[in-house]
Amino acid sequence: MTRFIVEEGGKRRAFKASEGVITIGSGEKAMLKLASPGVAEVHAELEMKDGVVRLRLKPGVVPPQIGGKPAASEQLLALGTVLRIGEASITVAPDEGAVPSAPQAPAPQPAKAGVSLAKQSVAPKPSAKAPIPAGKPAAREKQGWERSAREVYKDKGIKPLHMLLLLVPVAVIAFFLLKRGASQKIDDSLSGPQQVFLAEKAAQETVWDQAEEALAKIGDRSKLSTDLQARANEVDRKIKEGRAAGAVAAANSAGDKYLQSQLKNFEEQRLAGSKVDRSVVRVFLKRVAEFERRWPNHPDMDWVRRKKERYGPMVDLTKPGSYADIEFEVKSMTWDNPRNYREAFLVLNRWLEVAGGDERGKGLALLDKLIKERDEWFEDRLQEAAHQYKKGQLGQSIQWLCVLITFSGDEAMGDRAAQALIKFHGSDAPTGGTIDLRAQLRGYRKELPDYWKVMEANRALAAWMRENPIDG
């Protein structure tokens, strides 16, 4: 089991945790609740597995501090590590119930002036109690630390001269050993094997940042033995392959979500039955094309291609769709959460460039309807962001503002949402502490790259980031 010590608000509490995951935050969903300012509803999680404690941060949160530096989004925590989240601290402590493998003798204490070592190290010899005369109070038996040197010597038969004869040779030997040790230079190469071991351990746990950090501390690898150099090079190889595999896995993970929500669920709900609507097939095939473009190496690509072969002959995507096709496509983009008005306006305006006659008139009416719906949605979500902020739910408030920047499809609206977002930086959070918007944006850049491409192109946000680099 792993023992944790939590300190906040001048109070201290400790608990033990077996293998599993503990969520940390200020909200109801957090298993370890912190009341300190600057803590998100679910800020991070601790995973205990095989005696190893792993920290994982939630996207968009202010990184905790470890040793005065921001923690990585995922890293291992050694015993003694102090993790600061807001104004609270969590220490990874050894289990106080652990039993050492062999009993350890207490360290000898230095002798006090005027008292021989025998008084401190020799226990008094128990003696038989004499009968207590009637009417006299019982004499209190002296404790060992209260007895005089004379009493100790009398019990044990140890004489000061004997102790002196024993201590002189020991002192002489110790003097020469210390002198010799002081003259020898400490072998710095001892850190090399240790760092290789730490790098191997971190690589085994797929924590590539820590593995690289351990290897960097080695310095000149040519000073290592041939075996250690080979082991360090092997860790380098694992880091390179692991990062590449991680990038593919992350991309495929996003592809998994798109495949399930935009293709499989869509087919099950809209293309089931004997009668298939052409407008529905058209949207499905456009989503298939998008999946092929973004995840060409996805492991489920065979399934996607089979669907393309099945539905492809029904619709020619090289030709403009009818009004019914465009109307359904626009609706399919705005019934999800979040609504993608940006893409819906692009599709409709592109179609209006080639449409004519009655269909163009219907398209213009649809455009007016879409603008009205988008304006109402924008104002409603902007108020929701303000409401979430007042409730202390900073993460949800920031999320809605980022959604508005990304999906409103209107430059002026995007600037309004960006200006509201920029005001958060350096202000006092409702739950306490100071908001660092740069840390929030780093999380979006890493976890939501599709959002980020649009956000970094926003005029107001781009100008602010030039003055406040998010990597600074």
Number of strands: 11
Strand content: 5-15%
Helix content range of the residues, please? 40-55%
Major sheet characteristics? 6 strands, antiparallel
Residue stretches low in confidence (pLDDT < 50, at least 5 long) are 98-138, 140-153, 181-189
Give, in order, the helices and strands. Answer: EEEEEEEEEEEHHHHHHHHHHHHHHHH
Number of DSSP helices?
Answer: 16
Strand order of the largest sheet: 2-1-11-10-7-8
Shape: globular
The oligomeric state of the chains shown is single chain
- Class computed from helices, strands and strand pairing: alpha+beta
Query: Cα-atom Rg, whole angstroms?
Result: 36 Å
* Through-space gap between termini: 39 Å
Mean pLDDT: 81
What is the element layout, followed by pairings?
Blueprint: E1 2-8, E2 11-17, E3 20-25, E4 32-33, E5 44-49, E6 52-57, E7 65-66, E8 69-70, E9 74-77, E10 82-85, E11 88-93, H1 117-121, H2 149-156, H3 160-183, H4 191-204, H5 208-216, H6 226-270, H7 278-294, H8 301-311, H9 323-334, H10 341-352, H11 357-390, H12 394-407, H13 411-422, H14 437-447, H15 449-455, H16 459-467
Parallel strand pairs: 3-4
Antiparallel strand pairs: 1-2, 1-11, 3-5, 5-6, 6-9, 7-8, 7-10, 10-11
Helix pairs in contact: 4-5, 4-6, 5-6, 6-7, 7-8, 7-9, 9-10, 10-11, 11-12, 12-13, 12-15, 13-16, 14-15
